[in-house]
Amino acid sequence: MTEKNHGEGNPIAAQHYNKAATEFAESGRVEPAAEDAKKALDGTEREELFKAEREGKSHAHGEDPAVKR
Question: The pTM is what?
Answer without folding.
Answer: 0.59
